[in-house]
Design a protein that fits this description.
The chain has helices at residues 3-13, 38-50, 61-65, 68-85, 101-114, 128-131, 154-157, 167-175, 196-202, 220-227, 240-243, 251-273, and strands at residues 17-21, 56-59, 90-97, 119-122, 141-147, 184-188, 208-210, 234-238. Helix 2 (38-50) packs parallel to helix 4 (68-85) and helix 2 crosses helix 12. It is of the alpha/beta class and 275 residues long. The protein has an 8-stranded parallel β-barrel with strand order 1-2-3-4-5-6-7-8, surrounded by 6 helices. The mean pLDDT is 93. Helix 9 links the parallel strand 6 (184-188) and strand 7. The protein has 12 helices and 8 strands.
């Protein structure tokens, strides 16, 4: 998917919501456990209920890999279902890959050739040769970890070098030499709201994938205030706050309502920004 195509989806649907499919077998409604593929049945219902309100879906690989072959089969069926019934949606594999060059090339082949994913989250800390294999695919995106929303993010990402430059700032500065804003995005957690101005100073044109809105307490308004740019430049992810809005038989209906509420907030932010 090109940037132009992604922006068209955002502006036409009035949303920049990404629904995170962090599907935990221990958290899905118990009545689904008798299904042959509980994760896929759950995901299918969530996708159908939320597709009108989002532009992207983000399966987190850990939740599928934890179940071995059956979990990865559910992941593959989920991706194929989105591709068939919602082909305009952007699909992010949240896998946080990154290794020496020949290994990264195999990861890239897996997600971009085998699963036909649009984008992949990648860890930058092994340097350019660990990231560049993912950048060799037309229409595919790397989403590089920059400043994350977890509690331990301060342990390394805010460390300062002798010149006062923080590690996440160095990641942003150097990685822009590898790819432009038509192929690379950055992960920036919504709980880091006060730092979005600094992010935008260093990466004024790149899309940002923003987790942490909803269950983690990040503010959508603060993200938009400091992070939105002329063509939006944001994909805001919500996982638990949507997919586990209810643990009963009405789980899909509740997820749709939660997604709709976020979409309405996003539409208002887009309008306020003049988009």
């Amino acid at each position: 998917m090109t940037r132009k195509e992604l922006v068209h989806q955002i502006t036409s649907k009035r949303t920049f919501l990404c629904v995170g499919l962090d599907t935990d077998i221990k958290k899905i409604p118990k009545h689904l456990l008798t299904e042959a593929s509980p994760l896929f049945v759950f995901n299918k219902a969530i996708i159908d209920a939320t597709a009108s309100y989002c532009v992207a879906f983000k399966p987190n690989l850990a939740f599928y890999e934890s179940l071995g072959v059956s979990g990865m089969a559910a992941f593959e069926r989920t991706v194929r279902y989105i591709r068939k019934y919602y082909p305009s949606h952007f699909i992010i594999a949240d896998a946080k890959r990154g290794d020496i060059g020949n290994t990264s090339a195999m990861y890239a082949r897996t997600f971009f050739e085998e699963y036909h994913i649009d984008s992949l989250t990648v860890a930058p800390y092994m340097g350019e040769d660990s990231v560049s294999p993912f950048l060799n695919y037309d229409g595919k995106w790397v989403i590089l970890l920059a400043l994350t929303s977890n509690r331990g993010s301060d342990d390394f990402q805010l460390m300062e070098g002798k010149d006062g430059e923080k590690l996440f700032e160095r990641v942003l500065r150097i990685s822009q030499q590898w790819a432009g804003p038509d192929k690379m995005m950055y992960v920036v957690g919504a709980t880091q709201g006060e730092k979005f101005s600094e992010i935008r100073r260093l990466a004024p044109e790149h899309f940002l994938l923003v987790p942490g809105v909803g269950a983690q307490g990040g503010s959508l308004h603060e993200v938009c205030r400091y992070g939105m740019i002329a063509d939006c430049g944001l994909l805001v992810n919500s996982s638990r706050g949507i997919i586990y809005a209810s643990t009963g038989e009405d789980f899909a209906e509740a997820a749709g309502a939660a997604a709709k509420a976020l979409q309405e907030e996003m539409a208002a932010e887009l309008t306020a920004f003049g988009i």
